[in-house]
Amino acid sequence: MRHLMLLLALIASAARAEDARPFNPSDYPPGVQQALRYANEECTSQDGGEVSFAPDTVRRIDLTGDGRDDYIVDFSDTKCGDRETTYCGTGGCVMNILVTLPDGSVRKVFDGHVRSYKIMPPRKARGAARIRFDLHGSFCGGFGPQACVKQKAITASPFTFKQP
After folding, report:
1. Which of 39, 44, 77, 93 has CA 20 to 30 A from 11's CA?
2. What is the pLDDT of residue 20?
3. In sequence order, what are the residues at sequence separation of 6 or more whose Cβ sits closer than 8 angstroms to the Cβ of residue 13?
């Protein structure tokens, strides 16, 4: 019986591995592809070699509450050759948020460094999702490791975080 269970587990693992596709930037709209090109340009400028994207570099999710896919491009697990820090530093990792407009085009509404983020539920049904951003302490008047948390409802309007 134990051998049968092991065999079934191996078959299931192999099936999942076959279903896993490598990350492909062309699976996304042109606006998202443009955001991904940043990784290649940055790596090239540092003579870093080939860029490898993590499977979850792009997250598709309706952030604005309009029923259309929006996108979070998170470079935290993106590698430039064998370099670990091309896209990340003490302020976090490069992150872009892109929203899909009614005409189907994609607009970048955020481009900055984020230590981490959490998507919060909208305050009302069919409203914009809020994102809780953990930022470098300087965005809250402190310094590096100090906690700095900001929240923002995601709309089609671009936004940025400013240091005081």
Report:
1. 77
2. 63
3. none
Report residue 88 CA to chain centroid gap: 13
In whole angstroms, how large is the CA radius of gyration of the chain?
A: 19
> Encoding tokens for residue 77?
């697990």
Nearest residue to 112 (alpha-carbon basis) of 89, 78, 80, 144: 89
8 A C-beta contact, residue 126 and residue 63: no
Task: Give the pLDDT of residue 14.
Answer: 42
Q: What is the DSSP string of the chain?
A: -HHHHHHHHHHHHHHHHHHPPPP-GGGS-HHHHHHHHHHHHHHHHTT---EE--TTSEEEE--SSSSS-EEEEEGGG-EETTBS-SSEETTEEEEEEEEE-TTS-EEEEEEEEESEEEEEPPSSTT---EEEEE--GGGGTS-TTS--EEEEE--SS-------
**What is the tens place of the pLDDT at every residue in 44-87?**
998 888 899 999 999 999 999 999 999 999 999 999 988 878 99
* Nearest in space to 154 (alpha carbons), one of 134, 133, 132, 129: 129
